[in-house]
Specification:
Blueprint (H helix, E strand, L loop, with lengths): L1 H19 L1 H5 L13 H15 L3 H14 L31 H14 L6 H15 L19 H7 L7 H10 L4 H8 L6 E3 L22 H10 L11 E3 L11 H7 L6 H4 L5 H12 L1 H15 L21
Antiparallel strand pairs: 1-2
Helix pairs in contact: 3-5, 3-6, 4-6, 9-13, 11-13, 13-14
Length: 329
Amino acid sequence: MDSKYSIQFSILPLFFLLLLSPSVYCQLDYYYYDNTCPDLTRIVRYSVYSALWTDARMAASLLRLHFHDCFVDGCEGSVLLDDTSKFKGEKNAFPNRNSARGFEVIDDIKANVEKACPSTVSCTDILTLAAREAVYLTGGTYWSVPLGRRDGKTASEKSANEQLPAPVEPLQNITARFISKGLNAKDLVVLSGAHTIGFASCANFKNRLVNFKGSGKPDPTLDSSLLQNLQSICPKGDGSSDPNLAPLDPVTTNQFDNVYYKNLMNNSGLLQSDQILMGDSNTASMVINYSNYPYLFYQDFGASMIKLGSLGVLTGQNGEIRKNCRVVN
Ligand code: HEM
Ligand SMILES: *[C@@H]1O[C@H](CO)[C@@H](O)[C@H](O)[C@H]1NC(C)=O
Ligand SMILES: *[C@@H]1O[C@H](CO)[C@@H](O)[C@H](O)[C@H]1NC(C)=O
Ligand SMILES: *[C@@H]1O[C@H](CO)[C@@H](O)[C@H](O)[C@H]1NC(C)=O
């Protein structure tokens, strides 16, 4: 009697999991290229490794590119497409113009992959794997990436402008964007931890430095010695210092770790959208958790990246395998 009930109770949740999961994950497959391109992971890893050798920032740039691909009309390699006479692509949308980088690296990886397995691996999967390698090679966590995404045939500057979060938006607005994509506040806090590597230009945080929200004063939630530093990096109010760069994590800039969260507890987040995670008790308690438990952050980061990488994917007969990541076939 007892054992009969316990079997039923242990199978029931499994049954519901099976019912719920196909819509999200089941079209992608951890073994997708095992027979058709067995060296894929090694090729991507080596190519990213080589790129980091000449430009340490490239890890951050590839990670961001994957986010910008997936957050705009789903992960379909749309961010990689150049403008054509038929559509204006995403490269010149506000969140990407003068800041999205790594396109040449994706071209290189694609060329190396095509040599080993022609017309087999999508540019979207390559970008997804490159983002994982970027985190892994900068000392962060590792997660298995389900594969089988296919490449989209169009891109939209308008979608990129409308869908990507801006650093000056209130937390409520940014959270609403994540929720509209099927992500949640936890994903927002965890994925913002990507700002443990890379840089931002003055254009994206100068609103905090002098006259914050018309107060005539800097952002009060910005540490005063960091403020001085940033004011010296971005001295000009006329826009001429807009392209100058500051590290998102000034303490361990090129290392993927949980110091981003420690910085937030220090009023040392660079972007307004970083520091406001401390302005809400729910997100702040997650920040504190991740600042104390690096392995909790690593584990949750991998899980949220799999969710991000599964948004709006094209599988089966949809889309195509692009030959050149910049143009549709
Ligand atoms: C939550 C909302 C987010 C906002 C408002 C935001 C905004 C920004 C901005 C303004 C920059 C600086 C761009 C520049 O000046 O060149 C940046 C950089 C970056 N972002 Fe985000 N971001 C967000 C979430 C994310 C997520 C979810 C990821 C990845 C999972 C990510 C990864 C990065 C990385 C790695 C960089 C550095 C790029 C480089 O150095 O080339 N961001 N972000
Ligand atoms: C935040 O969202 C509200 C409601 O959608 C909107 O009116 C407001 O302009 C947004 N704020 C910013 C800074 O985007
Ligand atoms: C926080 O502030 C302290 C004191 O200003 C500084 O030494 C430290 O580097 C800052 N960052 C972290 C991550 O502790
Ligand atoms: C903090 O982490 C623990 C696990 O270590 C978890 O049980 C708890 O729910 C977390 N709290 C928040 C606010 O994320």
